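Re: weekly structure request thread

Next one in the queue (191 aa):
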Amino acid sequence: MGKIVVSEFVSLDGVMEDPGGAEGTKHGGWTFPFGSPEQEQFKAEELVKADALLLGRRTYQGFAAAWPSMEGTGAYGEKMNSMPKYVVSTTLADSNVTWNATLLKGDLAQELARIKQEVGQDILIFGSGQLVHSMVAQSLIDEYRLMVFPVILGSGKRVFPEADEKTTLTLVESKPFASGVMVLTYRPAKS
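Done, posted below.
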């Protein structure tokens, strides 16, 4: 059975917005000064261990426009392009979904329970801030894999939405990189 894994680039103050600079925001591209072969290897291994991607509309559209035509991405690009993707959107139609993707319709919790039964490995969520917020609110995430960068941005969209209730997580792994980046892996704490 698969698990839903949120895998995000995050600043020390919790900002996830525009790490690669493609969105043209104030702090866009904030991860670039910290790139390293260690991080690339980690992300490659993470993708190899996954069976599918789960994406919100905007992230899906950005990825689908870029990845199929990227050259020189090797095994990582091949895996990104060939693996199944599930897209959560209320505005896209089936005819707008390509790149080995399926549009999820109906109750998200039920759809995800079905997909988790069909796959054996991780279902990764990259980016997709609005989707992540919705899933956090519904307790639909099995694991948070946060690649924390040693930078404070001060503004931008954050991984975790404001909420009235606290959520407790359990740290299951930490992995430091020489660049100062740290991968922190958390799972929801058992009651």
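The first helix runs from residue 37 to 48. DSSP finds five helices and eight strands in the chain.
Next request, please.
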